[in-house]
Amino acid sequence: MEIANRKTFYTEEDYENLPDDVRAELIDGKFYDMASPSRIHQEILSELHLVIGNHIKSKGGACRVYPAPFAVKLFRARDTIVEPDISVICDRDKLTDRGCSGAPDWIIEIISPGNPSHDYIRKLNLYADAGVREYWIVDPMVREVAVYYLENRTFRAKAYTFQDTVKVNIFDNFSIDFRALDITGREISSNYIQGMKRPNGPQ
User: Residue 69 burial by CB count (10 A; 0-12/13-18/19+): exposed, middle or buried?
Assistant: First the structure.
């Protein structure tokens, strides 16, 4: 089911009253439908969630990692609620019964066919504005990882591939070797690739 944006502005209450069969994000009062995730999307999400969770647990860290669906209300005064694929929150005071109130420390989005500009452009600007310390965009189509980390309220960018070990900037001595991830669907179907319209990532 898609949301017909009949109103000019939607609120947090409208988000909370969405039907159970509807997945959408609310950004500055407008709904954006969320595409159904592919199998490769879910494999990457599961692997990253496991690796990150194991690292935090092994270090006895205070941070918590949550996979989608997990509601994140980025701003107190703006009607914006997103559902990142992976959210890492280190300030437990931000955790609520509904999800997270405030900016997570680290967000990972995994590109799905349909509208990658939502992650590369709209959410990039949104997360920088909210003060998310680190933002990864994992792109299965070209097997690349775009890493953005906050410096002086501006995102700095680095580009990696699925053959690289990617440094996590918010933690000391933590990197993720993408070659070691158990992703069986390494040969992505032509139908998946044709469904993508990928904007330019970090240069």
Answer: exposed
Q: What is the pLDDT of residues 180-189, one digit of tens each?
A: 998 865 444 4
Rounded distance between C-alpha atoms, residue 191 and residue 18, angstroms: 31
Q: How far apart are CA 184 and CA 61, in angstroms?
A: 30
State the burial class of residue 132 (Cβ atoms within 10 Å of its Cβ: 0-12, 13-18, 19+). buried
Spatial contact of 86 and 65, defined as CB atoms under 8 Å apart: yes
The HSE-up count of residue 167 (CA atoms within 13 Å, CB side) is 9
Report how far residue 58's alpha carbon sits from residue 65's, in angstroms, rounded to the nearest whole number: 13
Q: Label residue 197 by pLDDT band (50, 70, 90).
A: very low
Question: Chain-wide mean pLDDT for the chain?
Answer: 87
- The C-alpha angle with vertex 64 and arms to 60 and 68, in degrees rounded to 5, equals 150
Residues 6 or more apart whose Cβ sits within 8 Å of residue 165: 175, 176, 177, 178, 179
| pLDDT tens profile 121-146 | 889 999 999 999 999 999 998 999 99
pLDDT band at 29; cut points 50, 70, 90 = very high
